[in-house]
Amino acid sequence: MIRTLATSLALATLMGTSAFAETFEVQMLNKGSDGERMVFDPAFVQAAPGDTIRFVAGDKSHNAEVNKGMLPEGAEAFAGKVNEEFEVTLDVEGVYGVICKPHYAMGMVMTIAVGDVDVPADFFEGRVPPKAKARFEAQLGNL
């Protein structure tokens, strides 16, 4: 029994944080439980490096992709296809602004914060539709 426990502990230590990585499921919906239209649920995720985000098309005609310019330096951009579930593992700490490309102007956005981070000064540097900006600002209040 002690040998099994020691072996398990050693394996977990060798595997590092990946042994404890979480997977967050985010639904892409036409209408949220609060009545808001065109939403990601949840709209904000606080993750750790190595965690995975699984985007699920709860309703048709949605995708999830990182918005150009709204990702940490050194992070790779990602984009899922419309109507398809996909996963992304985030290893670079920072703030990721995610949009549904077909519904971006309608404010379908979410924020993923990886690690203990602050909002980058240049987060809103590019053109951001008013409704999307208002939702991003509300989500960033979670940091």
From TrEMBL:
Superkingdom per UniProt: Bacteria
Transit peptide is among the record's keywords: no
Cofactors named for this entry: Cu cation
Primary location group: periplasm
Tagged with keyword Chaperone: no
Protein name: Pseudoazurin
Span of domain Blue (type 1) copper: 27-114
Gene3D superfamilies: Cupredoxins - blue copper proteins
Signal peptide positions (record): 1-21
Compartment list: Periplasm
SUPFAM superfamilies (UniProt xref): Cupredoxins
Entry keywords, A to Z: Copper, Electron transport, Metal-binding, Periplasm, Signal, Transport
